[in-house]
Amino acid sequence: MAIKNKFKFIRFIVIAALIFYFIYYLFISFFVKQDKTFIAKYDLMYLENEYHGLIIRNEKTFFSDINGKIEYKINDGEVVKKGQVIAEIESLSDVKSNTDDIKLDTNFENKKPEILKELDEEIYEIKLKIVNAVNGNEIEEISNLEEKLKLKLDLKDKLTNNKIKNFNLEEISNRNGSDESSNYFYSNYSGIVSKKFDGLEKILTMSNLYLLDYNKIYNENIDSISKNSGLIQKNENVYRIIDNYSYYIAYIIPFEDIRLFNNNLNNVKVEIEGIMYSASVYDCFENNTDGILVLELNQTFDQFYLNRKVENKIVSDKFKGLKINNDAIIINDGIKGVYKIGVGFDIEFVPVKVLSSSDKFSIVEENYFYVYENDNRKKVMTINVNDEIIKIGNEYMKQNDL
Question: Based on the domain organization, do 229 and 280 belong to the same domain?
Fold first, then answer.
């Protein structure tokens, strides 16, 4: 009899809980919803962010193997064919040039072992932290460390197995040596000819892609030297030929945006001086505390062969992400977020990271994102697909005196 009564009591509790749940759900639906919430769903939008970066070109530098007086036969920025005359030089015994070429350390291959050693030390430290986090059952920290480890291992693999040959090698003079008194320089390649040099011709190259400190280079003053007809010394730069069919831009992006480009995007649009150019994502990787997004372009813009620094918009083509109403997003105690209805119908404020916005909607990061506090990276949990969100955040906040 006691067992039977106990069973009836448990059944009563279950039924009462279901009734209470149903009534509470109706209450929430009537007083909270009434078309005041929406479900976060995946949708297609255009991603639009503004980044700054550095142009990486395929270019070759040619220099004089004699002292002399040079006369250029082309204008700066002119497109030439292979075999075209670039300049004529008259040999002189002793010359004092008016310009000094920029001399910078360009042997980055020698720095690779040191970089790999530091990377191995960082990988070892992260692995130790993962072990400690596992022992302490720190689930969120484990996920954070595993993502950092993945990026470090990926960078090490790229440094170790980078097979890109350095196109940007300085070549010896290509003048016609049959006449010692007067000689012509002929173009070895077709492309854009320039008589301006910034010293980065052999530094910003694809073979050095994973070895450079992009933020440091970007923040330096980049001066150019222009060459004109006149006296020129032996071993002095004469001109460079630039590939005008393909080039790259290495953009410095927030560290957390690496995941965005690695997982979601292949092709983007680059807006430069009001004109849109098609670009493909070549690579995206860690670079100190930043990320580097490398785009490959096949359309040139005005004076791309002169400029090194760019700052422009990058727009994706039909970017898929978590779409929410702009009116749902509010600022609460300096934090951007939304109000989400939880499992027990509790309404909680959840931080969000906006990836792109239009007039009415935004694409936001899902599951989690990172913020920096005192140079430390902190993982922040955010909304997921199918989460129920309060449609007008400010209205709800005022009604509840939050």
Answer: yes
